[in-house]
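README: folding subset

This subset contains proteins for which both the sequence and a predicted structure token string are available. Records are stored as plain text. Below is the entry for Nitroreductase family protein (220 residues), shown exactly as it appears on disk.
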Amino acid sequence: MTDTELLATVPIRHDRRPPADMVRAAEVFAERMAQRRSVRDFAADPVPDGVIEAAIRAASTAPSGANVQPWRFVVLTDPARKRRLREAAEAEEREFYERRAPQEWLGALSALGTDWHKPFLETAPAVIVVFEVHRGPHSPKPYYVKESVGIAVGLLITALHHAGLVTLTHTPSPMRFLNEVCERPPEERPYVVMPVGYPAPDARVPDLTRKPLEEVMVRW
Ligand SMILES: Cc1cc2nc3c(=O)[nH]c(=O)nc-3n(C[C@H](O)[C@H](O)[C@H](O)COP(=O)(O)O)c2cc1C
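--- output ---
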């Protein structure tokens, strides 16, 4: 037994819409999302004030295990801080690509043409570093942390795309150096690094295909 009080309840806010409108909205949204791509070449142009904040607010509406909301979003825009991030990330990535990465992993990456150089960490006008927040002096024990933070990051990617920006889910390995660069305590564990901005004018992306619905969906 615990002595926590049951939360009060409020009516759900939900507008029931005509089915045809719903189908149309779902189709339009799917089409819009199909245009999302991971971008690795950024323009230096700044992003409009407030867009990143609103996108992080949207991400923070994600469901989370026991509603602990175990996420932290660190926004880096200071050029000196971004340079430190790039230098630290490239040192780790160089070690990864040249020594630590198993051949099988390098094989999977080779088609994408990625290597240890990460100029986008400096050229992108903003870099959002997302952390999982574990139990600490000021944070309770979270549940389903990876799932919760993953969902929040999915919403963040969607919100940035919806606002007209591009990003990349970048996962340097290992990532502990991010605590120092972002000045975060040890109970916060790096999850992903997301440069955010506009594509460089000559930016190109791999010509990928996505699995068709029949392959990813099962209906009984
Ligand atoms: C969990 C995760 C980690 C990723 N890590 C990296 C990374 O470290 N570097 C990178 O260039 N791309 C990374 N990506 C991006 C994927 O390569 C990219 O999403 C995939 O090739 C599909 O391309 P698209 O995002 O344009 O659809 C990562 C994606 C995910 C979901």
